[in-house]
């Protein structure tokens, strides 16, 4: 019950989570279990939660999906979350989370989607995220991240979408980013990155709240110039903003 107390400190939304209850009996709000009776999915997006994410989350060893977006959670991401070695989807976007992104997230080998956008994260992007070999979506937009874009992100062989827009990043785009073979969308708007960008245009669009992604962008192909790196990206038909 440590996790319940942290997420919902006033017991307004998770009253169905009881001490003597079985989380797999179908009555625990937002909880789903696998065929072995182990908690595998927690879906509490848009529930009005106003607490924190407890280190007790590490006890849910068989969790594959954690969906806590569209809430008012605050505080830091506990480093213990890296113990969830089977987690493939982590949605913490659109909250009030702060602090630095734990480098330990780079050890979560099963992670495919990492949504941390629309929070208050500070510090640099951990280079360790380049170790997430199964990652297809990395969304870090609309935070307060600083520093350079890690070249290690170019090692993500399954990465299809990389959104770093609306932060305080600086420097040039690492040439290695062009090595990501499946990358389709690279959004780097509203940072302090070097180079010249011309003919910029994008059309914002909002996904329905029932969709896992909270906010999206409808990208339109551009003519962009940011030196040799961008020339390599253009050859691979990447979309850059």
Automatic annotation (TrEMBL):
Q: Where is the Leucine-rich repeat-containing N-terminal plant-type domain?
A: 2-34
Extract the Gene3D superfamilies matched here.
Answer: Ribonuclease Inhibitor (3.80.10.10)
Protein species of origin: Morella rubra
* Keyword Signal among UniProt keywords: yes
Recall the taxonomic lineage recorded for the source organism. Eukaryota, Viridiplantae, Streptophyta, Embryophyta, Tracheophyta
Q: What is this protein called?
A: Leucine-rich repeat-containing N-terminal plant-type domain-containing protein
**Keyword set for this entry?**
Leucine-rich repeat, Repeat, Signal
Which Pfam family, just one, is annotated for this protein? LRR_8
* Signal sequence region: none
